[in-house]
Design goal:
The protein is mainly beta and 526 residues long. It has a domain at 312-511: Immunoglobulin-like (Sandwich). It has helices spanning 132-142, 286-293, 357-363, 490-495, and strands at residues 19-22, 26-32, 41-44, 70-76, 82-88, 98-104, 118-127, 151-154, 170-174, 179-186, 192-197, 202-207, 210-217, 220-222, 227-233, 240-248, 260-266, 317-329, 339-345, 348-350, 395-397, 400-403, 408-415, 424-428, 433-440, 459-460, 462-465, 469-476, 481-487, 498-503. A six-stranded mixed beta sheet has the order 8-7-10-15-12-13, with no helix packed on it. The chain has a six-stranded mixed beta sheet with strand order 19-18-23-28-25-26. GO terms for molecular function: copper ion binding; hydroquinone:oxygen oxidoreductase activity.
């Protein structure tokens, strides 16, 4: 883990460069591919109104940017505020191709809290001694799970718990009695992460680029894909204090339980830190997970869009989706097992087409995808209970959820104990949705909706579905286009835990997809 690895990175930087903008800006980013294989870039959490062409997921909204070519993305910001991020959206390349998007208040707009004295972006990462694309390509060809990471990193640094040289630890220098805004991004491949700064209180102020009701905590829990804005005051005795991260898991096959460190260092202090002082919840501490996420609530500040949760009487599209890890016959010559890993939504394991779904939809090209994703699972069983004797067949396909512009949509995401069980961070492109409900066990459509929070549910773009439970989300389908929905555990997305949401055009130009740009990368078969 202390080795030097050759990685595909952006502008010779790991993490990649930070993009700093103001709310409501339109940004142009010209991506030159000087690597050896094609890839795309996704602007995670940016809703891109009517502009799916530049959303980025490979073979969903575009084909890859080929080596020795370039492509300019048009990024249209709207209501987002705070912190988002960008990352590659091809195979596992995002492991080394990622960076922060800092969205500052618009002109004449203020923070809904005292302006901090400084800020720091903190990106939590998975470290592999190897090329991310080669790692997943080898695993998929063999039909075996990809390996565990060799370490975790903070801003590209491994810290001092792995026996590596001390120059691999990230240091944040602070002044006494100053307050700092931490912009925390979980860019890890397959791991939710606890994060803390020893002896300091963290105040959460935003999640997924939307302000939340402020609350204090000794730690945060953040899922892959999520972002959190956190205030911390340097109000302790001058010294060096550890910041630390470790994974959380409720799976039967948990990740490696490494603790990675950084230093929260007061200016002009010289001295050491003691690793024995690091305290973080245990990796399997479900109570710590629940205690944290249950406190995330929307806040009615002028800097947030007015809360507009679809009411029960508004909902006209209900989708109930089960999440599962399955197996399928491994048929290629490199297989080392008879049945390889697959993952599914409602027993459909997603297959990427040879051209992007958006182009096929826009041009009415037949045979690329089907508009028949099931709105209910094909069979009902004790999803979170004993599965002895349950045989749940999975099929492969490129099947989309189709709704009309303006529909009021409710999606219930239900974990199952298929495979190793465990949580699933689900990300929906093109939207921020209201997280209205959650629970353990099997969702009950008669009684569980009565527990929904329809008063102040937070706006999210990535939501963690607990390993033995469910979550419910609601939104108005007011952004026409083709939008990817997938698990942000990369191994699950690679195995097919994905689908596509197609929101059909409305009746006006302002409610329809923007015209297809002439500069889109060509697909190999077009």
């Amino acid at each position: 883990m202390c080795n030097t690895s050759t990685l595909l990175v952006v502008n010779n930087s790991y993490p990649g460069p930070e993009i700093r903008v103001h709310r409501g800006d339109t940004v142009f980013v010209n991506v030159h591919n000087r690597g050896k294989y094609g890839f795309t870039i996704h602007w995670h959490g940016v809703k891109q109104p009517r502009n799916p062409w530049f959303d980025g997921p490979e073979f969903i909204t575009q084909c890859p940017i080929r080596p020795r070519t370039n492509f300019t993305y048009k990024i249209i910001l709207s209501e987002e505020i705070g912190t988002l991020w960008w990352h590659a959206h091809s195979d596992w390349t995002r492991g080394s191709v990622h960076g922060a998007i800092v969205i500052l208040p618009a002109e004449n707009e203020t923070y809904p809290f005292p302006t901090p004295d400084g800020e720091q972006t903190i990106i939590l990462e998975s470290w592999y001694n190897g090329n991310f694309k080669k790692i997943i390509d080898k695993a998929l060809a063999a039909g075996t799970p990809p390996p565990q990471p060799d370490a975790y990193a903070i801003n590209g640094h491994l810290g001092d718990t792995y026996g590596c040289p001390t120059d691999t630890i990230f240091r944040m220098e602070v002044d006494y009695e100053k307050t700092y805004l931490l912009r925390i991004i979980n860019a890890a491949m397959n791991e939710q992460q606890f994060f803390t700064i020893m002896n300091h209180t963290l105040t959460v102020v935003a999640v997924d680029a939307s302000y939340v009701r402020r609350f204090k905590s000794d730690y945060i829990l953040i899922s892959p894909g999520q972002t959190m804005d956190v205030l911390v005051s340097a109000n302790r005795n001058a010294g060096q204090y550890y910041m630390a991260t470790r994974p959380f898991s409720d799976s039967n096959v948990p990740p490696v339980d490494f603790i990675t460190t950084g230093i929260f260092q007061y200016t002009n202090f010289v001295g050491g830190s003691n690793a024995s002082l690091i305290t973080l919840p245990a990796m399997n501490n479900t109570d710590a997970m629940l205690n944290f996420i249950s406190r995330i609530r929307n806040t009615n500040v002028t800097q947030n869009p007015p809360i507009n949760v679809p009411a029960d009487t508004d909902i006209n599209r209900r989708v109930f989706i089960t999440l599962a890890v399955n197996d399928l016959p491994c048929k290629n010559s490199k297989c080392v097992v008879s049945d390889g890993f697959a993952a599914s939504l409602n027993n459909v394991s997603f297959v990427y087409p040879h051209i992007d779904v958006l182009q096929a939809y826009y041009r009415n090209i037949r045979g690329v995808f089907a508009e028949n994703f099931p709105f209910l699972p094909p069979e009902f069983y004790d999803f979170t209970g004993n599965l002895t004797g349950v045989v749940s067949a999975v099929e492969v396909g490129t099947r989309a959820i189709c709704v009309n512009y303006g529909d009021a949509v409710e999606i219930v995401l239900q974990s199952t104990q298929m495979g190793a069980g465990g949580s699933h961070p689900i990300h929906l492109h093109g939207y921020s949705f209201y997280w209205v409900g959650a629970g353990f066990g099997n969702f009950n459509g008669e009684t569980d909706p009565s527990t929904y929070n329809l008063v102040d549910p937070p706006l999210m773009n990535t939501i963690d579905v607990p390993g033995t439970g469910w979550v419910a989300i609601r939104f108005f389908a007011n952004n026409p286009g083709v939008w990817y929905m997938h698990c942000h555990f990369e191994r699950h997305a690679s195995w097919g835990m994905s689908t596509v949401l197609i929101v059909r055009n409305g009746s006006t130009i302002e409610t329809s997809i923007r015209p297809r740009p002439s500069t889109m990368p060509r697909c190999h078969r077009t």
